From TrEMBL:
Gene3D superfamilies: Aspartate Aminotransferase, domain 1, Type I PLP-dependent aspartate aminotransferase-like (Major domain). Its cofactor is pyridoxal 5'-phosphate. This is Aminotransferase class I/II-fold pyridoxal phosphate-dependent enzyme. Signal peptide: none annotated. Keywords: Aminotransferase, Pyridoxal phosphate, Transferase. It comes from the Bacteria. One of its GO terms (molecular function) is kynurenine-oxoglutarate transaminase activity. NCBIfam families: PRK09082.1. GO terms for cellular component: cytoplasm. Residues 27-375 form the Aminotransferase class I/classII large domain. InterPro entries: Aminotransferase_I/II_large, Kynurenine-oxoglutarate_AT, PyrdxlP-dep_Trfase, PyrdxlP-dep_Trfase_major, PyrdxlP-dep_Trfase_small. Belongs to the class-I pyridoxal-phosphate-dependent aminotransferase family.
Amino acid sequence: MMVMSKLPSVNTSIFSVMSAMASKYEAINLAQGFPNFESDCKLNELVTKAMRDKHNQYAPMPGLLSLREKISEKIEKEHRVSYNPKTEITITAGATQAIFTAIAATINKGDEVIIFTPAYDCYEPTITLFGGKTIAYQLEAPYYKPNWGEVKNLLTQKTKMLIINTPHNPSGTLFTKEDMLALQEIVVAHNLLVISDEVYEHIIFDGHIHQSAARFSALKNRTFITASFGKTFHVTGWKLGYCVAPEVLMQEFRKVHQYNVFCVNHPMQVAISNYLEDSDKYMALPKFYENKRDTFLSLMKDSKFAIIPSQGTYFQLLGFAEITDESDIAFAERLTKNYGLATIPTSVFNNKQKDFKQLRVCFAKTDETLREAAAILQSI
């Protein structure tokens, strides 16, 4: 039976490829972005309690109201803006589903969507799936800062949306207040929509402030913000996140959401709703991961890799141009096979696979794992 693929150029993701190689060669896995330490036992106990309390049937389609109320309170506390928990917040099966749903609800055949590469690899296939066209704006190493004049030059009459990601994966850089104001000016002037991928919203270092799209009123009014409890609470396997947007956009989002997943894991929503009563559970994250970053950078201080400290996320880029002239893909494969360390080659996230000779590593690992990984990297 012949099937005409709607995504003919999509292959297995680099995360799956490198993790499979890590398993095959019994390598330390700094490739895929997940912690290798346990989540808070209190959170796990709250899930068990929710199951025992019989919260095991369908949750409400937009998510448990108590959880949506906690999210609304959290955003108001952090950014001094309000979202109506009944009409402007939806609980999703992770941030990837939220991004998929926002694109599905708004992008039509022929619409153009600007993304900033290096970009998370779910953006472009989803745009393509719904008939849109991806327009890539390449951020340049080593600082990955946008030139908003160049972004403006990419706009056409077909431009419908921009997708941003801050804190930025894989570079670890942040959009500044000035960046967000420039973005706001563009989208208002050209009547555009925005998806702001903010899954690392609580993982920011060195006293920097997360410049959420919610902080800018005109931008807030035309933006889907997506976030992840999995990233925040070290439970990536739970695939639980949320989306906030003005009511007019959320109405369209929920039309797709209800026929895509309808609702998401009920006992975990109950547990996280209770867990969010203590704001220290997420407010302590910046210092926790900053310590992880600093531990890793201290271990790497005498290596031959070029390193600019990550400003956010739990990823760090390692420049290897002074070590080898191999492509980043070839070097990443050799590191895995010959040295027992799996990383991510960053060219796979770039427009036309532009190779800046950088690898991405995840430092959301135990100190023991970081020491073992750094010892390997130091030996190169």
